[in-house]
Known about the structure:
single chain; alpha/beta; six-stranded parallel sheet; 8 helices
Amino acid sequence: MKKIPHHLGIILDGNRRWAKEKRLPAFEGHRRGLEKVKKVVEWCQEKGIKMLTLFVFSTENWKRSKGEVGYLMKLAKKAMTSDLKELSKNDIRIKVIGNRQRLPKDIQKSVSEAEKKTQYNKKMVLNFALSYGGRGEIVEAVKNIIKNKVPPEKINEKLISENLWASDLDLIIRTGKEQRLSNFLIWQAAYSELYFLKKYWPEFSKKDLDTALLEYVRRQRRFGE
Length: 225
């Protein structure tokens, strides 16, 4: 395909509902979800996608039960530690976007170490949106601009974009049978193409990715022209 998206975002939705339909514990749905993440990263790299942002844990997800949140944090740490060697070997740079202050201290440490170890990798940037909310990201960007004492007349869209955690998206894929952005990169999604899939995240296949990318190629992105 000639027109592969530079920056792909995926909203990973449906782990718990998949597990429920299979009569499995919710934890098993999340575990299968992490296994799927590793495969999808590999598929995206094969396609030539340069930046991939995965929405893995939102600020709203903190409202879930203590046990479930604890297990999700355990999976996040695994992704940043034991799974890191394979990612680094494939020349993938890891970045985590979100409110890190809410993360457990050991997760914060693992995140910092993963980012440091992979900072010079160049083949792909893999962003994990962890403890992330789009509105919160914009608030933090505004705070940073105020902190730097930028005059009001100097504030424009370009400056706000420069103070955000991630760049503009070309395509967003959402699994889980829902059709909304759920506060995911809402500034960066302004002109992105949207693709909603009637499958839960653990069911996502390489063929599903191919179909979404073909649909992206088919669409004409006019940007208002």
